[in-house]
Amino acid sequence: MKKLDIFVLRSFIGPLILTFFIVLIILILQFLWMYIDELAGKGLDIKIIAELLFQFTLSFVPTAFPLAILLAALMTFGNMGEFSELTALKSSGIPLERIMRPLMILIVFISVISFFFSNNVLPYSNRKARTLLYDIRRKRPDINIQAGTFNNDIDGFSIKVTTKDPYTNLMEKLIIYDHRDRRGNVSVIYADSGYMKVSSDETALIMVLYNGYSYNELQERNVSNTERKYPSRMDRFEEQTLVLSLSGFDLERSTDDIFKSHSAMLNISELTYHIDSLNKRYNTRIDQQFEEFTNTKIYTERYNLSHYVDETIYASPVRDNRFDPAAILDTLPPMEKAPVVASAIEKLKESSSFLSQKNESLYIEVKNIKKYEIDWNRKFTLSFACLVFFFIGAPLGAIIRKGGLGTPAVISILFFVIWYVISLSGEKLVAESRVDTIAGMWASSYILLPVGIFLTYKASTDSVMMNIETYLAFLRKIKDYFYRLAITDFRDESAQKD
Q1: Do 178 and 170 touch, CB atoms closer than 8 A?
Q2: Cβ-contact 251, 271 below 8 angstroms
Q3: Is 214 helix (H, G, I), strand (E, B) or coil?
Q4: Which of 275, 319, 363, 397 could crosslink 78 through cysteines, CB 3.0-4.6 Å?
């Protein structure tokens, strides 16, 4: 049996490694597709891009494991079924469960690794990746002055170039508006031509201008609007050098503490601590708001109604310890009923507004708690999904008996989409407090696990449920039945005519 275990493990590990890296590449490409607009045009160093991709690749590992296991199991048992290896093993008296046993042990081991990876490595990689992405988003794009349009990338300046030679980088008919004084278009520079380059330390933009003019409107002080003369100054130059600061264009690295309290950056123990703290704070706020509502909206004033209330009303034992506002209102004089009712309506409106406002703030608290609970459960559901997908992929591959990457890839994507949709729907329902956290986060597992058990049973009993010939034979029987039925009706009609 050791040879059988080694054979099955060797047949499975190769496709597992292959599919794992294929899934990782797909997830990385999806990430690049989502964030390409934020990465392009910012002059990022290759080391920064490599670091970003590496950190996000680590964060994709727990998601890649379940799909890779599903695809590898389908390929392995599909190949074994296609080449009649499963048939030979079963004819030797070895059941399918015994063939799957070494892989079950391996998948349990992978699930444990996936959990520890999610709990220890994933928070660190998420923190590094999100911090670096945050710094890249703050970085301003490289200066790219295009001919014919104004460029406002440099703070305090608006630059327009009429023509620009792509080979010599010579710019002609430049217009530069200086807005550093925040007084409008009061300082303008015009040049026939010029060159532009970045300083060696990349902290400034050096512009060398030729044959131009500079116009400046001088600011008048202590002069009324009717007495203003709007003086100006014009200077002519043959060559002038402008040095413009490029602050904000470099990548400023932040510390990892920015997102340290985010739910995706915490491990199990830290999430548990935050969940307990948030629940305690939530319960405390409920008690405080209930006390505030009771003291300020219900028992706001004390009225002495003894001289209004007819004591005989409450003499009956039936009315003892019972609050009857209608009876109390009837005891008031007619002139005082209207003010009392109006005051009650006003208090009711204030109470309704108070409850609506507090309910909204408490709802935000609950959503924050649910976010931490979702990430706490996700560390377990992603690991458990490895087992679920194995019990789907292995028996399904033994049933369809098709190896390679084509058919298993299609089936894997189908089941992964089903799992992803159920998981995403469950998370949304949990985040909106529509269902319990356990029920929503584990929905995909307890829905698909019975499917895996059913498929394992069918594969163990050599079911032909996935054999297309079975369904074709069934369709042929239906066709023959209707054909015979039509012939019988035709014969009956012919006999009646005769």
Answers
A1: no
A2: no
A3: strand
A4: 397
